[in-house]
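Worked example 2:
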Amino acid sequence: MSAPNKSYDPVEVEALKPEEIERMRDEALAAFAAADSLDALQEAKVAHTGGTSPLALANREIGALPPQAKAAAGKLVGQARGAVSKALAARQSELEADRDARVLVEEAVDVTLPYDRVPVGARHPLTTFMERVADVFVSMGYEVAEGPEVEAEWFNFDALNFTPDHPARQMQDTFFVEGPKGTTGDESGVVLRTHTSPVQARSMLDREPPVYIVCPGRVYRTDELDATHTPVFHQIELLAIDEGLTMADLKGTMDHMVQSLFGPDMKTRLRPNYFPFTEPSAEMDMLCYVCKGTSVGHPDRPCRTCSSEGWIELGGCGMVNPRVLVACGVDPEKYSGFAFGFGIERMLMFRHNVEDMRDMVEGDVRFTRPFGMEI
């Protein structure tokens, strides 16, 4: 067997000619220099350094050369590919620097701009005041109770000792959703609750005495919207059911609420009145928190808040009527209770000299914002 022939001249491959390799290198360098973005540079990189690029294909041809020619061809191709890789890295660094500089300009944040260009919002004063009142009673051990606003007529009227012919049950005072069912009308109708007292009835049915709850919420009556009336308003009521409760306990509880909200020197008084669900019943007044009664009999210094009467009417109260206790499953021989309720809108008008109740319901932020936020 003859030995390998090592004396013949190298076979010339067109792609490995020095001038061809220089041309491939120069084309790659020119493509990189012409790339004006990182995306364009990526396309040039694939075209001139990828697996199907001219230099990559030329590198594959080295294997077909005789041994004597491989070293020289490999050195030539390697130098060209090294120059291409170096030029690619340099151009990529330049484009990345340009991109970063552009981002700093285009996405810059001017930290010298005013921080309060967007006005700070505020909770509605009705919500804030209702929660403040509820917090007073929660601190005394009461629970906050809630109930549906679309209420059964039985809970809204019958359970609270409103007789079937009571004026409050008529269409001119109550929003009826459904009338009584059945031919005899013995099944309760459905109304938008006219007060939060149905929550008291539900609580007495659901809980075993003692019961101490406060019930804030929205109520509905067929009033015209004007400066002092609105068909949708808010009430807050309390109910206490326990053994041995008296009007003295009611008076002490109301004194504590008034002093917590208006100051330690505030006083209350009771005036006899009538409500179907309490017996005895009373209207509760508090000392005017503006003039403290000093404007009474002094026309030279009138008080706008109390009209110089010295007292402001808070709301109705009294001992829970035994009929209500029986209707709600509570033994009136063992337990007694008291209840109290007042309108939030009216109290807010007194506290902040709001002249028109419509300002509270129109949603104008110019009314809400001055009250701020309480935490």
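Residues 67-106 form the longest helix (40 residues). The longest strand covers residues 232-242.
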